[in-house]
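Q: I'm writing up a methods section and want to include an example of the input and output format. Could you take the sequence below and give the corresponding predicted structure tokens, formatted cleanly so I can copy it straight into the document?
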Amino acid sequence: MSNAFFVTGTDTGAGKTLVTAGLLHAAAARGLRSIGLKPLASGSARTAHGELHNEDALMLQQAASVPLAYADVNALSLEPAIAPHLAAVEGGLQLDVRLLAAHCRAQLLRPHDLLLVEGAGGWRVPLNDHETLADLACLLGLPVILVVGMRLGCVNHALLSAEAIARDGLTLAGWVATQTDPGMARVEQNFDTLQMRIPAPCLGFIGYRAGIGFHDAAQSLDIGRLLAG
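A: Here is the clean output for your methods example:
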């Protein structure tokens, strides 16, 4: 599992899926076997056959080089675009971190050069009254990639997330900055501050661009630095 990672973000909308898909595509462009998982997703839409599919999970499915069925990429889709634990309650479901971990472990057995498990929201997103998505990363024992959405307050959010990951006993393998706010003041200075203070290598900076896709994002990501670690 040396090239398997859990991807989290400083908060919702930080750009986790763009970064995850970009890394998968960058690996695929090198001829590597890449797999992307989105075990839990809220904000899903029904297909013509009545199945719930999530847009982020579909992007990971498309970006990866190893073809997987949708159900292998995304174990559980929830329809409301709200926090997963609330969406589950509305749907009469009980989220269980062990079931999500079992799904991921089954996919980890597939031959791969890079496997990424994308979380939902930030590090401490609740699953139920007792468990969070951080528990999933801990059960899997995967090193973590942190996606930092560059907006006002991001330095505090990033440093607190990095501290929480370390406190939970996991390794922060790297981080990526994504400019989610095109009007953010002092972007470069904030980025420099993060580089000095986050105890992990920066894997790239994705500048703001309306409608940017994972093919373009991949150009800004240092996949070699991640795989070499």
